[in-house]
Amino acid sequence: MSQSHQQPALPTCPGCEEPLDAGDRFCGACGHDLSAVPTGPGDRPTMAVAVPPAGQAAEAGPGDAGTPDAGAPRAGAVEGGAVRWPAAAETDSSDVPAPVHSPADVPGTDSDGRPLTGPGAESGGGAGAAPGGPAHEEAGAVRVRHDHRAAPGGGTATGAAADAGGAARTTGDRAAAVAGAAPDGAAEPGGDPDSGDFPLAAPDPRTAEHAPAAPAAGEKVCVACRSGRVDPDGYCENCGHAQPRERDHMEQELDTVAAVSDRGLRHHRNEDSFAVSSTALPDGSPAVVAIVCDGVSSASRPDEASAAAATAANEALLAALPRGTHPQQAMHEAIVAASEAVNALAQEPAGAMGHDAHRHQNAPACTLVGAVVAGGLLIVGWVGDSRVYWVPEDRTRPTARLTEDDSWAAQMVAAGLMNEAEAYADDRAHAITGWLGADAYELEPHTAAFKPDRPGLVVVCTDGLWNYAESGEEMAAAVPADAQERPLHAAQVLVGHALDGGGHDNVTVALLPFAVGPDGAGSARESV
């Protein structure tokens, strides 16, 4: 039966510097294996621990006083090709389980199948002694793994780690030990590639810095860190910041029309949509179009409804106006086309609702308001409570609201039951009585034609804006004085006005500057 030789008493534990008692084999505080750390000279508190080749252990006699553990089997001693381990108690005096030996303390192979230790190996100073030390001159010493290389000062990497405060080693410690073994921090030139040594330790993935991939040309860049690429889910690959969705804020400007839409400060998405465009009438004169839609939040998929309606109405006008269709008739047909597009969203394919039986309890719905400036006329059309305002260039002239809401409040005022202030102060004021959708009571498109005799600005907006500038005078006060020359900037200012007021709803506004010919014209109005 193998027995472990009693080591001379050490004054303190090499691992935690706790005072030791005579005869202790393990530290009572940290459980350090004292038998694996023989007492060294006073000027070298730690010594290289080498695994002796087979045969050398047998040569050491019991009376060899110069070797503390002579004549006794050492940890990992090889006799007859078999590894002999010292007997160890299951627990030490502090009831801490006895530590196990590192696999590198005994002969074996690494993960690549190369030998770690063995008789007759090239001289390596036992457990990685410093180059030039006595261990390099010792014949028959064994080379060990790279994580046992010598630390600066002559001790082993294992001993250096223990002196620093613990036997556990991280990859960073091994890298430091390798750097200390070679003056240039690299592997020794001319080393045997099959010796089991590795030139450098692999970097610790927990501490390695991963540079973010630079966005390619045309890819979105994170709005937070300004360097990360945005993945398909809408998050930055560098900082993880959620990116604004495309519809959260939209802007578009043409030569004679501009529009801005914003999510606002309270809603989680933008359910408004718009479309602006320009075309030519058969006589070659220009025609400018602006469509603004507001999704009904209580309906399902209101954002899809508003987008479908705006697109369909815009395409219908662009198709009808160049054919010579009267602008007012073209506006009526555009509203009908928009209604059909929204109705089509309610036609779900069979089985599409299987995953969510309560998703489509009501049909997608939205409101619509549009304006066309063509041939000296201003044509407006609407269904719902989105509005069109007229703001003259000369602010001393009166302003006007050109649409009537399809809402509970408007019905109360029209019936003479309430005045406008009382009706719009009621909680039911914004309950709409007309909308585009499969569940609408009856589609009643409203259109009106005007022929202004003075230049001005046409403001087409949702209730997210006019809630903060309800009357014509309030809207005119919010419109910048240079809106005729800078419509996009003016639209941005109006959206900012709504956000400054609280931004309780999505905000969308389109501005169309209206110019009058040199001959002027009297104003006229036709409505159907």
TrEMBL record:
Disordered: annotated span: 1-136, 148-218
Ranges for domain PPM-type phosphatase: 256-514
Listed Gly residues bias regions: 121-131
PROSITE patterns found in the cross-reference section: PPM_2 (PS51746)
Superkingdom of source: Bacteria
Start-end of Low complexity biased regions: 48-77, 158-192
Protein name in UniProt: Protein phosphatase 2C domain-containing protein
